[in-house]
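hey can u run this one w/ adenosine monophosphate bound, need the structure tokens asap thx
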Amino acid sequence: MMSMMTNAPAIVTTPEELRRHMGRWKAAGETSALVPTMGALHEGHLSLVRLGRAEARRVIASIFVNPTQFGPGEDYESYPRQMEDDRQKLASEGCDLIYAPRAQTMYPEGAATSVHVDGPLTQCLCGLSRPHHFAGVATIVTKLLVHTAPDIAIFGEKDYQQLQVIRRLVTDLGLPVRILGGPIMRDEEGLALSSRNAYLSEEQLAIARSLNKEMRRTAARIAGGVDISEALEDAEQVLLRGGFDRIDYLEARDAATLEPVSRPGKGQARLFAAVFLGSTRLIDNMPVA
Ligand code: AMP
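ok here u go:
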């Protein structure tokens, strides 16, 4: 049978193999873009691969479910893993290489080094409810950037706080890489695509789809002059009445600093939400236009 995988990207699992590929490309003067992921790929991830292809000659996707960014009781064990399916999707986007290291490679026996981004960027939003999350993210992204040494690394605005944290760490460590953010990809009803949407029942999916609508309504109300805390409190009530089980946070913050915004003014305000449907935690964010 003719394989659909003729142009499937090679999968490498060690930094040495990765460097062999990268070294060949660098020697040929080719630029590279890294798209870090945890796999279970969807259009959101693939849009970042396309952005990579537009910006660089070679695109490397990493697939690694990073244990240190999950808290106790979170979904590390059950997180979807589907390498062959992911590889096909990456093949059809023209991705050049997959870096899928093993956990022991990223965290060798006795590993004792981690990267912490301190300060206001991590002391709010997801940083409060997932206290070790950003140290896990900062540590793994630093390792991936060191292993790959790409010209560009691309992250989605879906995880907007993560993107800001990574910009900070790259600036602070002086890493020679350009960080690009890609826009949030949504389904036809505006639900931000996420690998975790697969956990939702049909009924929960319908509720999940109301989140972006309520956020858009709230953003428009704030832009139209309604008091921010009043608009946010109303929205929380609407979401809870609409079937969400718990609101982790719903806040308006400055898009660059993530400092709280009490009234729209200078700078760009952004709405941030994290909500629970059963044990599934969903996040979304959007500008207050
Ligand atoms: P993950 O596999 O969830 O760690 O995500 C890998 C990268 O894809 C991160 O930079 C995410 O922000 C990005 N991403 C995930 N979902 C989306 C989406 N719906 N739209 C754009 N980027 C996304």
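The mean pLDDT is 96. anyway lmk if its weird
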